[in-house]
Design goal:
Length: 613
């Protein structure tokens, strides 16, 4: 500072009450939530606080149920009709938006505090892109981090993408990190999970390649649920019988989805035959394997009803030529022994694959879980060649010569031999492509090192246990060397701690599940094993699936509908944060959001304002 001020005068002013009050006001203005709660609440009497609590609870319900802001006035009128006193102010859509903004800001600040309070802090990023109902390209970003020793996926932000190339997507991700206060995000980023699109995984100009210019240790992971879909499609794409089966399922869905008359007739026929009626469902969707399994299961379980109605449609004179032609095509498949047997065989195949898909889509799935789940599925598929699965066995036991559920099937001499060849072809090709698509979990040294997380698979032999995992510790230490050096990591200490940790786990935690063991390590022994737990944390936060992004887009579709297509990305971010990570309306506590709202805004708050009649 320059000028004619005396040093002692400045020092005296710094100690003065007026300077303290001004500094405190500036601090609160910059971060309103930092104001002590008691100071805020002292400025409100109990009546005002009770009123604002009810209004904030109502606004939270509006957001959580994906309702329009304009619903708040009507909801308040209903509550006042039921005897609640809500006053006359803030009962409009603009205040509803303000309340929701304050609630979301508190949640965002909590995320920021969680990130900045832990040192060291490692995390991974998962992102995906979609076009919302307003025809705006949006990039949604989640982060995977540890919370109380468990890996969790947290919604970070959604950002508008100005241009759908690598630079545009990268800019959206960077803006998202800055939006939640992660200014030093490069110092903690471990990996990025994506759906495998070239804009993300391109070797030269993809987002991951560009990030590696500054984050050399960055690991790129293709979503395992998406890779599974690609592997299955590769395995069956050349099987004509499956192509015919898919066309039949699509035809059945169209037949009943677009014709109320056809669906009504199916339901009436099912009632007459004393059978339940499940309408055929679509085979297309974001999750190809589970959708196909569900569609095929309906046809197999309601075979007799669907066949009877297709036969009725084919011969009736009150159906269009298109529907009659479709019905005759379906009948030709449902009366072929080989087609029906293949249908039940594929139901067994898809049953195993959809279980694997659902496992991969769980938020808690870790890298070490992928190999085990994949190997189990490949063995289950191989077993279907040695003996029939549950569905095919049920079909074979129900067939009396060539009659299945009162329908006479057309069986040729070579059908059994051709069916055996089909089964071998499908299973062998699927297993081969599963191995090819997921070989990086064996070949990539970082991903392969994750097997040390499986404590139940640690060797029992003392000599083997003594050296178990040391190679993996060295591999991880070398790969993430630059990142670890920023956090005072000591590789020699990590190896020593790893030996102590193995003894502790084997003697005291050997019967616990993997998640419980590592949760105990992080909550009770963080200081004792501070070096080696850095490596374990890195392995736990590796993102193997981006299903959370798909669920985020599903939430976005519920919020930004054709009636709310003008929602901007900032408001959409507020609503998504509550919709994805918010607690239930019954468990919501609005007090911190009220305090934040009370201290922000240019206009004075007038909770007791009464309009003149």
């Amino acid at each position: 500072m320059t000028g004619s001020f005396r040093k002692t005068t400045i020092q005296a002013h710094a100690r003065s009450k007026s300077h303290h009050c001004c500094s405190e006001a500036h601090r609160v203005r910059e971060n309103p939530e930092a104001a002590p709660m008691g100071r805020v609440l002292r400025n409100m009497n109990s009546q005002i606080q009770e009123k604002l609590t009810k209004l904030f609870n109502s606004a939270y319900f509006i957001s959580k149920e994906n309702l329009a802001f304009a619903k708040l006035p009507e909801l308040c009128k209903l509550q006042m009709k039921n005897g609640l006193d809500l006053g006359e102010t803030y009962l409009n859509d603009h205040r509803c938006k303000e309340f929701i903004q304050s609630i979301s800001t508190v949640m965002k600040n909590d995320l920021h505090n969680q990130i900045t309070s832990r040192q060291p802090f490692f995390f991974s990023c998962m992102s995906d892109q979609a076009v919302d109902f307003g025809v705006i390209e949006e990039e949604i970003v989640f982060i995977r981090t540890l919370e109380n020793g468990l890996a969790v996926n947290k919604y970070a932000t959604i950002q508008r993408v100005e241009k759908s190339d690598a630079n545009g997507v990268l800019a959206s991700i960077v803006n998202g990190f800055e939006d939640i206060g992660m200014n030093n995000w490069k110092d903690g980023l471990v990996a990025i999970g994506s759906d495998g699109a070239s804009v993300m995984t391109g070797v030269r100009n993809g987002v991951i390649a560009k990030l590696r210019q500054d984050v050399s240790w960055l690991v790129g992971i293709h979503c395992v649920a998406h890779k599974l879909e690609l592997a299955v499609l590769d395995g069956i794409k050349d099987v004509q019988y499956f192509a015919d089966l898919t066309e039949m399922l699509k035809g059945l869905y169209k037949h009943y989805h677009y014709s109320a008359k056809a669906l009504r007739e199916l339901e009436e026929l099912a009632s007459v035959m004393a059978e339940g009626c499940n309408r055929p469902v679509n085979v297309t969707g974001s999750r190809w394997v589970p959708h196909n399994f569900r569609a095929l299961k309906v046809v197999c379980n309601k075979y007799k009803v669907i066949h009877a109605h297709m036969h009725q449609t084919a011969v009736s004179g009150n159906s269009s030529a298109t529907m009659q032609g479709r019905a005759r095509n379906v009948i030709s498949k449902l009366e072929s022994y080989k087609h029906v047997a293949f249908m039940f065989f594929m139901l067994d195949i898809l049953d195993e694959l959809q279980k694997l898909s659902l496992t991969f889509q769980k938020d808690e799935v870790a890298v070490s879980d992928v190999k085990n789940a994949l190997e189990r599925t490949r063995l289950s598929l191989t077993a279907l060649l040695a003996r029939p699965g549950a569905n095919l066995r049920k079909f074979e036991q129900s067939v009396n010569v060539t009659v299945f559920e009162t329908v006479t099937l057309n069986k040729r001499v070579n059908d059994d031999a051709e069916l055996t060849n089909l089964k071998n072809r499908v299973v062998n090709a699927t297993n081969q492509y599963l191995g090819d698509r997921f070989d990086n979990f064996e070949q990539d040294p970082v991903l392969s090192a994750a097997h040390i997380l499986e404590v139940r698979h640690w060797p029992n032999d003392r000599e083997q246990l003594a050296v178990f995992g040391e190679e993996e510790i060295n591999v991880l230490s070398e790969h993430f060397k630059q990142l670890l050096e920023k956090n005072d990591f000591d590789q020699e200490e990590a190896l020593s701690e790893w030996l102590d940790l193995k003894v502790l786990v084997k003697n005291n935690y050997g019967n616990l599940r993997k998640q419980a063991v590592w949760q105990a390590m992080f909550t009770d022994f963080a200081e004792r094993f501070c070096n080696v737990l850095m490596l374990i944390e890195i392995l736990l936060v590796l993102p193997v699936c981006t299903a959370c992004c798909e669920r985020g887009f599903s939430c976005m579709s519920r919020i930004k509908t054709q009636y709310r297509s003008k929602l901007d990305s900032v408001t959409l971010d507020y609503l998504l944060r509550i919709g994805i990570d918010g607690v239930s309306s019954a468990d919501f506590d609005p007090q911190r959001a009220i305090a934040l709202w009370w201290n922000t805004g240019e206009r004075a708050k007038r909770p007791n304002f009464v309009r003149n009649s």
